[in-house]
Write a structure and sequence with these properties.
By secondary structure, this protein is mainly alpha-helical. The protein contains nine helices and no strands. It starts with a helix and ends with a helix.
């Protein structure tokens, strides 16, 4: 019914709009290519699926202790701002291939990022404590919705990575690439 449409609309909108995961996915693809971003994506996927499951289990607690939850979100915002500065200041093209590889992010970084991603925590808390309320979900149903959410989250990461592939073709000169880094970094900073 209409409740399911409302839940899916929330999930799809939140997964596909610009956020730390999507911006980082685009930036990483621009810098290292799509294949070298797949490991980062799997780390993000496992991380946000785990985070969403954790929020499903703690939904009642989160609703009662918003102050502690907000503190976690603010810590995440500080980390996202750090990432934004790093992206904005990143050199557009690395001359030394070894230099380039030291900034490569993988599964571990993608996974850990989810615990510092304020948007993800807010997304899951809103989904579990507000958006799902009209259907009065059991824990099992919350977990099911979390996996549906993760499917759309992974689809969004892939879509944003493919945008990175396209942007790499369009912003091919070092000057254009530097402008794009600054733009992506500032966008991430504003979202933090």
């Amino acid at each position: 019914g209409p409740e399911i449409i409302a839940i899916l609309t929330f999930i799809i909108t939140m997964c596909f709009n610009p956020g730390p995961n999507n911006i980082l996915s685009t930036f990483h693809t621009l810098k290292f290519g799509y294949k070298k971003t797949i490991s980062l994506h799997f780390g993000m996927y496992i991380g946000f699926t785990f985070t969403g499951s954790l929020v499903a289990f703690l939904a009642d607690w989160i609703d009662q202790y918003k102050v502690i939850f907000n503190f976690i979100v603010y810590l995440g915002v500080a980390y996202i701002l750090f990432l934004a500065a790093k992206i904005s200041l990143a050199p557009p093209l690395e001359i030394n291939e070894k230099d380039n590889q030291k900034n490569l992010l993988g599964f571990k970084e993608g996974f850990i990022l989810q615990f510092l991603n304020g948007k993800a925590w807010t997304h899951f808390a809103t989904l579990m404590t507000t958006v799902l309320n009209p259907i009065q979900p059991t824990l099992k149903e919350k977990l099911m919705w979390n996996f549906i959410n993760s499917f759309f989250g992974f689809t969004a990461l892939t879509t944003w990575a493919l945008a990175g592939v396209l942007l790499k073709k369009v912003f091919s000169s070092p000057k254009q690439a530097k402008f794009l880094n600054i733009f992506l970094g500032l966008t991430l900073g504003l979202l933090g």
